[in-house]
Amino acid sequence: MIHEGQVVLTSFPNTDFSMAKLRPVLLLRRASVRYNDWLVCMVSSQVWQAEADLDEIIFSDDRDFSGTGLKVSSVVRLSRLAVLDDGLFVGSMGAIGSDRLDRIRQRLAIWMMGETAREKTGF
To answer: Has residue 117 been placed in a domain?
Structure first.
């Protein structure tokens, strides 16, 4: 059963569509009640690419790391979003903790609302 917070594998394109490769994505939320579409974000082992105040790094010594199925510390790239049909998911790796999922969603919402929201919340 697919659920929010799950880390799954899918073919995810570069932003310029020059190529796509099989990579993990985080299921943020089901995007439709009528279709099996999911809002996802890319997960990358290239932690140096993390955008400050936006992306979330999952470190190998974090409490929920072992459940993710990731092999090394990785960055949840909130600026790399897509809506995908669940038929594109090749397999499940694991899942993040519910506390982390809540924090990631809050971070994404604040980022989408702009600087004013960040100043108000202190996030």
So the answer is: yes
Question: Mind listing the pLDDT tens digit for each residue in 49-79?
Answer: 999 889 999 999 999 999 999 999 999 999 8
CB atoms within 10 A of CB 105: 16
Q: How far is Cα 53 from Cα 2, in angstroms, rounded to an integer?
A: 28
Q: Using an 8 Å Cβ cutoff, are 73 and 21 in contact? A: no
CATH number at residue 71: 2.30.30.110
Q: Which amino acid type is present at position 58?
A: I
Q: Tell me, yes or no, whether 40 lies in a domain.
A: yes
With helix as H, strand as E and coil as C, how does 9-56 read? EEEEECCCCCCEEEEEEEEEEECCCCCCEEEEEEEECCHHHCCCCCCE
Rounded Cα distance between 51 and 87, Å, is 30
Per-residue pLDDT of the chain (123 residues; tens, 9 = 90+): 899 999 999 987 666 667 677 899 999 999 988 889 999 999 999 999 999 889 999 999 999 999 999 999 999 999 899 999 999 999 999 999 999 999 999 999 988 888 655 565 565
